[in-house]
Design brief:
Strand order of the largest sheet: 3-4-5-2-1-10
Helix content: 40-55%
Strand content: 5-15%
Shape: globular
Number of helices: 11
Number of strands: 10
Largest sheet: 6 strands, mixed
Number of domains: 2
Radius of gyration: 21 Å
Distance between the termini: 49 Å
């Protein structure tokens, strides 16, 4: 018999990238990583490549649109006066491959490869203290190197998810919350660029309730905590920033204009009474409750009796841990 919690479990499966999509991502990133590691000239400065971003942290939702690949280079590739030199060297190595030559585009801190179904951002870095510590990333526009710590962000996500486990076999609540938050943004702010997925993940990290267990409670607690924490910025027409989870003492700006933030905040605030009503209604009329949840999450949220599992991807609740992602180097 369906319950609100089981409907949420099916919903999470429905927004999970399916196996075909994951296979496409693997088919995209593994060859380019091998190419750089074995390139006739770039291979001399290549130390390691690893995956980063939401794909690596397992917080992405369907479809997977992009994969971030961090390329760690030897310190002899570091030129403090000319960060663009490493970006140029990376692009030249990618352009040596006929598959990528017409598909590469220089970005501010990366080289983007646009394939038919997925984009890859190839990010060159150097590791002054080793690959498990903060890296330096070249910035083309301002001609500077900036610290970044993608592995630190991965660890942050893993630790937050571990802290939301009720027992050893529990898969945690944080990563699924990030997926719910991202899907909420997709449905309720359809077509809007901001807030980006990274910002949704940061807000989930800083405003979630680690003790909430039922899925409706997990989501509602996040909505309430987020709107409460961000209310002063909405009232004073100002913008929040967030502590960088990988770099102590550093902050991350939202990248939003005020109109973007106001739109996001107002929509999230309007979601709260809807979600409360839907949760309360579930005890007497599960179908009516599910229909309200559909106003929040769209038709990926199933109705009682839907054969949701037939089309669903393997859930984040049952897939292997993100630590099993490979490293090239």
């Amino acid at each position: 018999m369906a319950t609100l919690n089981s409907l949420f479990t099916d919903f999470l499966s429905n927004i999970e990238p399916d196996e075909d999509t994951r296979a496409e991502a693997i088919d995209a990133h593994e060859p380019v990583r091998e190419w750089l590691a074995n390139h006739k000239t770039f291979g001399a400065v290549h130390v390691e490549t690893f995956l980063a971003g939401s794909y690596r942290r397992r917080t992405s939702v369907t479809p997977i649109k992009d994969v971030d690949i961090v390329v760690v280079c030897a310190m002899n590739a570091y030129d403090p006066r000319d960060p663009k030199k490493l970006l140029t060297k990376l692009k030249a190595a990618l352009d040596d491959n006929r598959k990528y030559k017409t598909r590469t585009t220089p970005r501010r801190r990366s080289i983007q490869i646009e394939l038919s179904n997925i984009d890859m951002d190839i990010v060159p870095t150097v590791a002054p203290s080793g690959t498990d510590h903060p890296l330096l990333i070249p910035d083309r526009d301002v001609t500077q190197w900036f610290p970044t710590h993608p592995k630190g962000h991965i660890t942050w996500t893993q630790n937050l998810n571990a802290a939301t486990k009720a027992h050893e076999n529990d898969k945690g609540r944080f990563v699924p919350l990030v997926k719910m938050a991202r899907w909420w943004k997709y449905e309720r702010l359809r077509g809007k660029r901001h807030p980006k997925g990274h910002m949704m993940e940061l807000m989930a990290g800083y405003y979630h309730d680690s003790l909430a267990r039922d899925w409706a409670d997990v989501f509602i607690a996040w909505v309430e905590r987020t709107t409460t924490a961000l209310a002063p910025y909405r009232q004073t027409v100002s913008m929040p920033s967030f502590s960088d989870p990988g770099l102590s003492g550093q902050t991350i700006k939202t990248g939003m204009e005020q109109v973007d933030f106001n739109r996001f905040y107002d929509e999230l605030q309007a979601t709260f009474p809807l979600a409360m009503r839907a949760r309360d209604l579930a005890t007497t009329d599960l179908t009516a409750s599910a229909k309200i949840w559909r106003q929040i999450f769209g038709d990926k949220f199933p109705l009682p009796g839907d054969d949701a599992r037939k089309l669903a991807a393997p859930s984040v609740l049952t897939r292997p841990d993100i630590r099993q992602a490979p490293t090239f180097g």
